[in-house]
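Forgive a beginner's question, but would it be possible to get any protein sequence you like and the tokens describing how it folds?
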Amino acid sequence: MYRHIDLNSWNRKPQFNFFKDYDIPFFNITANVNVTNLHRYCKSNNLPFFLSSLFYSIKAVNAVEAFRYRIKGEAVVCYDKIHAGSTILFDDNTFGFCYFEYVDDLQRFISLGQKEIELLKSKKVLDPKLDAVDLIHYSSVPWISFTGIQHARKFRIGDSIPKLVFGKFFKDGDKLKMPMSVEAHHALMDAYHVSEYLRIYQGLMDDL
């Protein structure tokens, strides 16, 4: 479910009008998040790190309204809830897209997520679901501690979905850090909103 944003009363109307027709309206921010506590928590409770990090990330996404905005034609809508779609690697090093419903319970999210991953791997299909926009496009690049990333985009379809990428975590003193890329449509949000997402995401991991 979603609601329409009244553009005439929206405080971002000037910024929306300024950026919406850019040839490349997306901006990208890469930052290192501290996953020391999350990694320890997963080890102690025998939980998969990827699905756990995905859960807390999509929980933080849903807490920042700007990440729930999407452009539909000339309108802007705000979804009640955003889910996750992520690349999943197959045994032959190709990949498919797996979709994870957001439920606000870590154990249930992991249980449902593991079933979806098993189902995808059994079918071994790409399944891009181009019509689904109430989600975040995730990727995991566990082989590279990247400092920047650029995504393939189909601009002609009016894409406004944020793309988030997890990288290979690394030691920084006594901390374990993970590079994270956030790419978003500038007509819908700014660096401030990305910083809010990162602040909430970090806080959720730190509070475990």
